[in-house]
From TrEMBL:
Keywords: Hydrolase, Metal-binding, Zinc
The keyword Zinc is annotated on this UniProt entry: yes
PROSITE patterns listed in its UniProt record: CYT_DCMP_DEAMINASES_1 (PS00903), CYT_DCMP_DEAMINASES_2 (PS51747)
CMP/dCMP-type deaminase domain residues: 1-107
GO CC aspect terms: cytoplasm
Entry protein name: CMP/dCMP-type deaminase domain-containing protein
Similarity comment text for this entry: Belongs to the cytidine and deoxycytidylate deaminase family.
Organism this protein belongs to: bioreactor metagenome
Length: 143
């Protein structure tokens, strides 16, 4: 899962889901999420979600998110949806995902415009190819 923040068509930050305290955490100890269905047991993950990392990094760097746009590969989990709403993000775009609990309702009630972006197979293949070529995504970056 990856996410990117923009304001006025300028990239602010981008991030991806990663395990803490190290990237190899799930390989060393196993990932507790393996025992749950999609959308269940989210609180048992050893990872930080891309959306949460973006919001935390923006706060750490003093980057205001009021009015920003967020693009996510997957619809945010309920916890991240609440963080997005509280951060003042104006628009959220996502490609795929699940809506569990109250994530969509929280976003909409907070005035966040939510839009699903649907790609055709050729577009998805191109995006995957570009992603495979990119070796830059190591941590949360400011561009």
């Amino acid at each position: 899962m990856g996410a990117i923040l923009l304001r006025d068509d300028q990239v602010l930050l981008y991030a991806y889901n990663r395990h803490l305290p190290s990237r190899d955490q799930q390989n060393e100890l196993g990932d507790p999420r393996c025992f749950f269905q999609s959308g269940e047991g989210i609180e048992f993950s050893s990872s930080i979600h891309a959306e949460a990392e973006l919001i935390a990094s923006a706060a750490k760097m003093g980057i205001p998110l009021e009015g920003a746009e967020m693009y996510c590969t997957t619809f945010p989990c309920p916890v991240c949806a609440k963080q997005i709403a509280a951060a003042g993000v104006k628009r959220l775009y996502f490609a795929t995902g699940y809506a569990v609990l109250d994530g969509l309702e929280v976003l909409q009630a907070s005035g966040v415009e939510v839009t699903q972006v649907i790609f055709d197979d050729a577009e998805l293949a191109q995006l995957r190819e570009e992603q495979a070529k990119s070796s830059k995504a190591k941590d949360c970056y400011q561009l």
